[in-house]
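worker-3 :: picked Aspartate aminotransferase family protein
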Amino acid sequence: MFPEFGRPVSDLLAELARLKAADLPVRGGRVTAYVYDTGRAEVHDAAHAAYAEMLEVNMLDPTAFPSMVALEKQVVGAVAELLGDPAAPGIFTSGGTESIMLAVKAARDSRAVERPQIVVPVTAHPAFHKAAHYLGVEVLPVPVDLETFKVSAEAVEAAISERTVLVVASSPSYPQGVIDPIEEIAARAAARGVFCHVDACVGGWLLPWLREAGASVPPFDLGVPGVTSISCDLHKFGYAPKGASVVLFKDAALRRKAYFASAAWPGYTIINSTVQSSRSAGPLAGAWGTMQSLGRDGYLDLGRATLEATRRLIDGIAKVPGLRVLGTPEASLIAIAGSPDVDVFVLADEARKLGWFLQPQLSYAGIPANIHITVTGVTLSGVDAMLQVIAQSAESARSRGPAQVPDGLPELIASLDLDALDDATFVDLAASVGINLRSTDQPEMSSVNAVLNALPAPTREAILIRFLSVIYS
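worker-3 :: tokens ->
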């Protein structure tokens, strides 16, 4: 709580250490989502030092702090050089969601149609739905092939209408790590006079290094005719501290549509390149410091290690009874589906007991439930241990059997008006099916995920919102 008197730094750091005790580890490769680790302490130290140096610089006014303009030009320029057009204008943002939001805004404001619409594969990141929600745009989802998990260019084109302001393709999609047919989609969009955004938040700073390391990577960047914008997160495979991303545009005119300015007040001049106004230059400096510390040689070395670890994981998973890799991953994202006797949600719980976090993914649009692994530069050093944990956890899941969903529970939940329940009543409802939302202990999530998996997406969303409200209450 807020103290009456100030506390010494040592006391504060001790409390932070205590609060972090139950957190997942951010280093070492045992957490296969949310964090990205080079395995090189000196690189992270350089990023932290650069971040701290620019922590108090405010990016609200570029004329007040020219240092941040110089850094942003370097960082955006490096991304543009890697992604097919060294002259491409761009914006440094707080993350992939903000990059995507700016791309959607630029397309919307450029077309100026009534009831604007974006066409996205069902595997596209929810950031597009979030951007559409905030910006008053309709989302038209397009199914993907259930063997390759890629959207077809024909299906995307068929969805384009006079209201379409943007079509989207992923390189790769997060759920299965596959690359949509960018060249075909961009060509068909251009023929219809529609902008095309490539979501390369995951792959933008990874795929070029995998290609250089020997992987087969199809064209996906601004060098592809018809691609008009592309997003690339640096806090993923750029290994920068959160939050660091870049969105590039085909020209300065399109980038200007992402900007916001207001002179309709008597105060200081308002001109924003991002959704945020005041923001620290720390993340920008952290990204710059990471890139400078690693250099091309460092990123290529990490790319080689990532590629080898990915291939070894795919080969090893194929030997585990009851498991299969979905699709043919083209980056370093792997989705593993189970079988009737190996429940992937139970498998994830068993792996958590062994100190490993494997990310559960619910079924959707015909795609089965699975567990997701993001392979990073540090994974290779522990790939054999990870395969052993996966095999052991699969065997334990087989012995335990699948997570059970009480008869009638999904139907009951779907029939409830969740907005009419207060937080306390929602907590009691969860407790009635064995889920203690007030416990500080790490719960087994297999039953929770099994229940969510049995519900339609809108009900899942309503429950997740209530859950978030409870944990912050």
